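dude i think i finally got it to work??
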Amino acid sequence: MPLLLHLTLMVVSFLFHEHEAIAQYIYPYTSAIVPVNKHIDAVKPLYSVGVTASYINSQTLKANFLIDLDAPLNWHDCILRWNIVPNGCPVNTPCTYPVSCDEYVCTDVRTAYTYENPKCPPVTNDSTTPGWGCTCPVRVIDPVTGSCGQASLDYDEFVMKTTDGRDITATYGVNPNAACAPSSSFGSFPKNVTGVMALSTSRHALPAYLFQPIKKLLALCLPSTVSAPGVLFFGTGPYYLPPQSDLDATTLLSYTPLIKRQDSYGYFIGVNKIAIKKRSIEVLGDATTKLSTIDPYSILRTDIYTWVVRRFSMVTKRIPRAEPVEPFGLCFSTVSNGSSRVSLKVPDIELGLRDGKKWPISTTNSIKQVTKDVACLAFVDGGAIAEPPVVIGAFQFEDNFVVFDLENSSLGFSSSLLSKHVSCANFNFTLT
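look at this
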């Protein structure tokens, strides 16, 4: 064989096997993972994720970001710096690089409909950074109060741990566009929560920045307690939840299509009816149902709410009543024989979905213990013209496992995990 041909075949063979080795590489993780904390020190229960943010001068700071399924953009308490000498960023202060008013990403973010909210004044190009010039102003909305604010677009970095579904394996960083807002913007937030994590379908929300091997899936498990964190997976399963170490949460899921709406980056599903003990009410009109981690309890349009309360009252007529406690309309006494507290057991409330699936809401997600002696049906009246007619609130998600699959535009949901003797507050975040 001629020498040149022999060398050519050797090179081709080497490249082939090199490519094959790369193609067969198996990542030691399937998901990024962050803890989810419940907060009860604000005007309503709220939930945050804890991430490590990497800043100029190689500083890293851990911060808690409020979970928002609607927000188009991540924003937090930080300072813009364009050219910092070593150790020039103040201690324990997040510093990030600014986005100029003239950059394409500035125009792209600012032309999103969310920043043209009619309740908010338009942004103005009067924000500057010394030595830099005009920094890109964007409109942000406080998810707690609904008030408008202005922030400055930046280049950010968030670092999370990774997992194979059972153990923590390594770290994973994403570089989303976010925005810096002044510290005064977070006065309505829970203590030690200094940002908003956008988990919506927006191309500027965090899921849009996920990259191989992590898929654009969010698996959320909200805790029902403040004493231990729940968990949020970014990516595919398996999702093992201790102490049942062999229980993969994916085996508990049913799926229904997500519905896109032109006026929102949030998540919606189709609910056609609500059933309680074999009787149901049709959800007339627009049957889209919103999923919310900001609304603490499910909200029903008045006609639906009235039927649910009436029907629920009928099937629980043997349980002693208590005076209603705002914002609830139907409450029960949990006192028996004058002193002992009893736990209530009531029928499931079933959400009938467009594709024929049923999402059962069990006692732990339908009854809220509001005082030591009173428990209430955890649904609220949204008014006669509420739109959408149904909002599934955060209390109904607690200790349930839900997957927002942006790859296939579907929602995976379980019933209460407590029936499987697991909860959302069991995952071990210790690095193995």
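The CA atoms of residues 334 and 372 lie 8 Å apart.
im so relieved honestly
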